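Quick illustration for those who missed Monday's session on complexes.
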Amino acid sequence: MIFVENLIKVLKKNKINFFTGVPDSILKNFSSYVENYPKNKHAMATSEGSAISIGIGYYLSTKKIPCIYLQNSGLSNAINPLISIASKEVYSIPLFLIIGWRGSPRQPDEPQHKAKGKITLKLLKLLKIKFCILRRENDLINIKKLIQKSRKRKSIVACLIEKNTLKIKRKKQKKIVNKFVLRSDFINEFLRLIPNKSKIISTTGYTSRELMGLREKQKNKKGKDFYMVGGMGHSSSVALGYALNSKKQVFCLDGDGSILMHLGALRTVGYQNNKNFKHIILNNNSHESVGGQLTNAEGIDFKKLSNSIGYKNYLKINNKNNINNIIKKFIRSKGPSLLEVRIRNGFSNNLPRPKNLIKIKEKFMLN
Ligand SMILES: Cc1ncc(C[n+]2csc(CCOP(=O)(O)OP(=O)(O)O)c2C)c(N)n1
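Prediction with thiamine diphosphate bound:
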């Protein structure tokens, strides 16, 4: 067990004072702590590649090493700027990474995390990134050596942290009170109203789990689901790829964090202009599935955004009033259409986790 406060103390002692990253459940106590820092000391990135790049820019401007936090699944987003800009063979930029190691072989985890967890150390070795594993407070001494190495050799270094390692002494409770609907309230209604033969592609985290749970609870056989257990930010592209050569209605259940991660994908949707493409953004302005850190989607005008990149319709749900009629209108609309649902945080008890993924895929591909 390691206290976040002690980890940060060690980083500060070693002159690391700037943080950027994408939240992860393992690192939630860490990212929730640093996200309260002023804007010149912390930046919430939308993807891990952007986080690495913000860190690179910070170094170019200050000559100081940044700390970049990410989940190991996001290591793949990070690899492009890591190898093609920051590596020793290119610009040799010193960076300090903190990686949440989902699927570590020591711990049980879900299939998508096991797959990435198994190759995480190999990836770091291949990238020639020196690393240590932090399991207990005593391991914090290794950070000093790593940072010294990074500073001296102008190299990228990393520490890995497994599930249930990071604890926090004083938790600040963020209580956001609003009148928006719960994610489950919306999905419950939506599932009742979807046409028989439709397809749903749902995003990473609680959304897919709520959809699976509510479908089981309703014993609803209308439509088929494909749960994006990984590949965060890519659900709209998977949905588009399906819609391009299908007459079925295709619904993408997305999150605000997920949409922001690969926002460019929306332009492809707008340009391809498929009538059967229906996009739903469950907007809670937070990465709820990994601890509720802000996504900063608040303030984005999704009506103007979707309009300007080629979506044909925009609808919005703010509260329970008229929710049925708005969903019906959305289903009837000619796509590409966007439905923004403002949701408040909160999830059902005992949410299931998609497990038998091959079976889920085969069922989805049936007519
Ligand atoms: C590439 C990648 N980076 C980070 C994560 C960890 N992660 C899983 S769900 C999630 C939050 C998604 O936020 P949002 O789309 O707003 O949905 P919400 O959790 O609020 O339902 C994050 C950051 C991941 N799975 N993949």
